[in-house]
From TrEMBL:
Similarity comment: Belongs to the N-acetylmuramoyl-L-alanine amidase 2 family.
GO biological process, one term: cell wall organization
Organism: Billgrantia desiderata
Ranges of residues in domain N-acetylmuramoyl-L-alanine amidase: 16-170
GO MF, one example: N-acetylmuramoyl-L-alanine amidase activity
This protein's name: 1,6-anhydro-N-acetylmuramyl-L-alanine amidase AmpD
Top-tier EC class: hydrolase
Keywords of the record: Cell wall biogenesis/degradation, Cytoplasm, Hydrolase, Metal-binding, Zinc
One annotated Gene Ontology cellular component of this protein: cytoplasm
Cofactor(s) annotated in UniProt: Zn(2+)
E.C. number: 3.5.1.28
Classification via Pfam families: Amidase_2
InterPro entries listed in its UniProt record: Amidase/PGRP_sf, Amidase_domain, NAMLAA_amidase_2
Primary localization: cytoplasm
């Protein structure tokens, strides 16, 4: 996988309006998330619609509570491993919200400024799929090769940077297995 001007080559693009410039231009860490819409259901176009402000509030009883959100992520990795990119990595996506991270002893806030947000299609119950780990590892390697400040130690989760408020990607995400996938890629 290669990155060209902030976009993964060969990956489907659905441009989100929910993006702006990175204040310092820094791209140095990854925040992992999970999402399913409606919650617990996989497939369909609702996630793409949420990130492009076109979600139909009438389509499900849960949707009126989120339809007003203006959110995005750089990338969605679907259950079959397909990647969909919404925001170029050089721009700021709106995924982490209020957030805080201890970065080499320094407390940093506003993680959207310098992180890449990756959503895994999933929830807290179902194990993530092999194809998702494989895609995630390939994307992470491409990010490391493309952005000099990025490295494999700088991968965190929404749960860690927004504790009490967020729990994703949740206990179903197998960190040890993901690290193995990264190692296998070299
Ligand atoms: Zn999240």
């Amino acid at each position: 996988m290669r990155i060209e001007e902030g976009w993964l080559e060969g990956v489907r693009r659905v441009v989100s309006p929910n993006q702006d410039a990175r204040p310092q231009g820094e791209v140095s860490a990854v925040v992992l998330h999970s999402i399913s819409l409606p919650p617990g259901e996989f497939g369909g176009e609702h996630i793409e619609r949420l990130f492009t402000n076109t979600l139909d509030a009438a389509a499900h009883p849960f949707f009126p509570s989120i339809v007003q959100l203006r959110v995005s992520a750089h990338l969605l990795i679907r259950r079959d491993g397909e990647c969909v990119q919404f925001v170029p990595f050089d721009r700021r996506a709106w995924h982490a919200g209020r957030s805080c991270w201890i970065d080499e002893g320094r407390i940093r806030r506003a993680l959207n400024d310098f992180t890449v947000g990756i959503e895994l299609e999933g929830d807290e119950i179902h194990a993530y799929r092999e194809a998702q780990y494989r895609s995630l590892a390939a994307v992470t390697k491409a990010l490391k090769l493309n952005y000099p400040d990025m490295n494999y130690a700088r991968i965190t989760s929404h749960a860690r940077v927004a504790p009490l408020r967020k729990n994703d990607p949740g206990p179903a995400f197998d960190w040890a297995y993901f690290r193995q996938c990264l190692k296998a890629l070299g």
